[in-house]
UniProtKB/TrEMBL annotation:
Residues 1-18 form the signal peptide. InterPro entries: SNase_OB-fold_sf. GO terms for molecular function: endonuclease activity. The keyword Nuclease applies. This is Endonuclease YncB(Thermonuclease family). It comes from the Bacteria. The keyword Nuclease applies. Keywords: Endonuclease, Hydrolase, Nuclease, Signal.
Length: 181
């Protein structure tokens, strides 16, 4: 399992560096409780916006219906799970690349004696999704496989029949915006 995680992280780094300028030589950092979590896949630290590469959390304001029939904020559920992982595992993150406004990172979390990909953990638990590019393909295909496995197991938010993939909601919003122009 550790070898697969190392290989996956190496492939991710190669895939990302092929299309973007990376911050070569950037030291890794530990993501500690107390950072300002913005969503279930992003945070602000030292005045900089960070985001997990290849992950899409539920959008704040999107909802699902829990087992008791109550409408819940899906984005808040994703945020709470990211917060719990940060608190419990103190992930180590490495900068992959930086855009004008966002630094994209890959993070690993300590669970027992294992180091696990934080994005994998979030997606496998069913509280985050594989990010999708504008052309509809996954940013990082292995995360789409993890997402399908979580969906098949009805993990996390997938247990609720009305949960919608954020990519669907974002695409619908882009379509509506184009139609309004």
């Amino acid at each position: 399992m550790k070898i697969q995680a190392v290989i996956r992280t190496a492939i991710l780094a190669i895939t990302v560096s092929a299309g973007f300028s990376s911050e070569a030589g950037s030291a890794s950092f530990t993501l500690l409780p107390g950072v300002t979590l913005e969503t279930g896949d992003s945070w602000t630290m030292d005045g900089r916006h960070y985001r997990l590469y290849g992950v899409q959390a539920c959008l704040r304001g999107s909802t699902y219906t829990d087992r008791s029939g109550k409408r819940r904020d899906c984005g808040e559920a994703s945020l709470a799970v990211l917060g719990a992982y940060v608190r419990d595992t103190r992930p180590t993150c490495a900068v992959l690349f930086t855009s004008a406004a966002t630094t994209y990172v890959a993070c690993s979390a300590s669970v027992g004696s294992d180091r696990l990909d934080l994005a994998d953990l979030l997606i496998a638990s069913g509280f985050a999704f594989a990010a999708v590019r504008a052309d509809g393909l996954p940013q990082y295909p292995p995360y789409a496989v993890v997402e399908q496995m979580a969906r098949d197991r009805n993990a996390g938010l997938w247990q609720f029949g009305d949960v919608q993939h954020p990519a669907f909601l974002l695409a619908r919003a882009r379509q509506a915006k184009r139609g309004a122009q």
